[in-house]
Design a protein that fits this description.
With 213 residues, this protein is of the alpha+beta class. The chain contains four helices and twelve strands. It has helices at 5-10, 21-32, 99-108, 177-187; strands at 11-17, 37-42, 47-55, 58-65, 88-94, 117-122, 128-134, 147-150, 166-173, 193-194, 199-206, 209-212. It is globular, with a radius of gyration of 16 Å. The two termini are 15 Å apart.
Length: 213
């Protein structure tokens, strides 16, 4: 496994963008033997998600466009989901101890996630979750630069008893791997960045087998 302890502690969630949410959920359950839990709808952002825990403080987000609640005109669609050509891991998030300091580090390395803004949604049980988020629709460094989240006093979604799978491997590549590696080092991320086309490879394991995203 390529995930060091420091990185494992920092990971908040991995974002798997899919074009057909129902089909993706079915294929996920068939491969791993685990049924993702409904997360919620992001009203005003035009998306909805399902979640699977990776640890008590990390999860996989399976996200797609919400056809019943489209993005308002003039509002950018998160993660470029409206132009998605194939299902893939689009980006990932970390929960640093100090989100403001982490945002400053990202800026120094050319990864501008935009201003830190408050957000909220209701989960499937109707519980209001709120957090602070720095995440740009542009996805700096082609999405391999993790965006930033601070859950504050809200319970972490991964610790709410949702179904879980094991994160077996996480590998990242980018043509500017040296620049990305510098960012990772300053953020405390111990992953080694390979040279290649921008890509986030994830391997998951469940009771039904393994799945590479």
């Amino acid at each position: 496994m390529s995930i060091d302890a420091g990185t494992d502690r920092l990971i908040d969630h991995l974002v798997w963008g899919v074009r057909d949410l129902s089909a993706a959920l079915t294929s996920f359950e068939d491969a791993l033997g685990v049924k993702p839990a409904e997360g919620g709808r992001h009203i005003g952002r035009g998306t909805r998600n399902y979640l699977v825990a990776l640890t008590n403080t990390a999860y996989l987000e399976i996200i797609a466009l919400d056809e019943e609640n489209p993005t308002p005109e003039g509002t950018a669609t998160p993660f470029g989901l409206d132009t998605l050509k194939s299902d893939r891991v689009l980006t990932w998030a970390i929960h640093p101890d100090d989100i403001d300091a982490a945002a400053a580090i990202c800026l120094r390395h050319g990864a501008n996630h935009g201003p830190i803004a408050p957000m909220s949604r209701r989960d499937a049980a109707g519980v209001e979750l709120s957090w602070r988020l720095a995440s740009s629709p542009v996805r700096p460094l082609d999405g391999v630069a993790p965006f930033l989240i601070d859950w504050g006093a809200s319970p972490h979604p991964a610790g709410s008893g949702i179904p879980s799978v094991e994160l077996v491997d996480l590998r990242i590549a980018h043509p500017q791997n040296g620049a990305v590696q510098g960012l990772f080092t300053d953020l405390g991320i111990g992953l080694q960045v390979a040279s290649g086309e921008p890509q986030i490879d994830v391997v998951l394991r469940g009771p039904g087998g393994e799945l590479q995203l």
